[in-house]
Amino acid sequence: MSHPTSADEATLRTSLQSLAAQLGKTPTVVEMHEQGDHDPHDYLDVFGGWDHALQEAGLDPDEAKVKITDRELLVELQRLEQQLGHTPTQEDVAEQSDHSHQTYKNRFGSWNNAIEQAMLPTNDISEKDLRQELERVADDLGHPPTAEEMNQHGEYAAVTYHRRFGSWLDALNECDFDTTQTQITDTELLTEIERVATELEKSPSETDFEEHGRFHPQTYTKRFGSWNQARELAGVAVPTQKISEQELLADLVRIAESLGHEPVQAEIDEHSQFGIATYHRHFNSLDEARRRALD
């Protein structure tokens, strides 16, 4: 997009050198926008790029680059939005900013994450665009992507799909991907928990798993009885600081009253909101837990 300017090269160089002297360092695009005498786009028009303008002014482009903060990158998106009258695309940044769209992906995880953190509207992205991008990534990978794979390879962040379609699984269903759980073995489900736990370096919560996992946490609840039970079967530690012995004993009482008799292990496994291993950790054995709860 053309941006006419009456400033010549000498004037722009002098202004750039003046701002550098004022700041005591090589200025960034954002600093020129906020504190300089000329619009950064003038430099792009006259010199063909911000780095080239810095070089022409006798300044070190690398010094400016190492000082680019997240805030500066986001302010640049906001500047472009004001200039263009719409949320900037990756193509807009390539054409009219000195920063690469890849810089935004590297810094914020995805292009759309950057747009959202800059508090710019994303509603102009149609559901058709979202579906097409999801299908493109699936074709590239050879399988329906996980939310994390979408963040890595897609133009739009997984959180956008969550907001638009309700959940990651619902987004996959919108594209008619085969998400039937009959094809997923217990081993696949548990291995996926291990993978996400390793990736996050912690025991994933259901919210963590919705964002980073390939399957929906509800699948685990249906298959294994509870999310905690699934984590335990996967060999992933379940945070216990919020589960008191009183809660565990009350749950056993509830199960017993519901069944009309003292529950055996299989019945506890089926009906308890906690995993069997949780009772063992707290009471050393399931028998001791039942004795404490029901005697």
Description:
The protein has 295 residues and is an all-alpha fold. The chain has 21 helices and no strands. α2 (29-35) packs across α6 (70-84) and α12 (158-165) crosses α13 (168-174). It starts with 8 loop residues before the first helix and ends with a helix. The relative contact order is 0.06.
Short description:
By secondary structure, the protein is an all-alpha fold. It has helices at residues 9-23, 29-35, 40-47, 50-56, 61-66, 70-84, 90-96, 101-108, 111-117, 127-141, 147-153, 158-165, 168-174, 186-200, 206-212, 217-224, 227-233, 245-259, 265-271, 276-283, 286-294.
Shape: elongated
* SSE sequence, one letter per element: HHHHHHHHHHHHHHHHHHHHH
Q: How many DSSP E strands?
A: 0
What's the helix count?
21
How much strand? under 5%
Most strands sheet: none
What's the Cα radius of gyration? Answer: 27 Å
Structural class: mainly alpha
Query: Kindly, what is the distance between the CA atoms of the first and last residues, rounded to a whole number of angstroms?
Result: 80 Å
Helix content: 55-70%
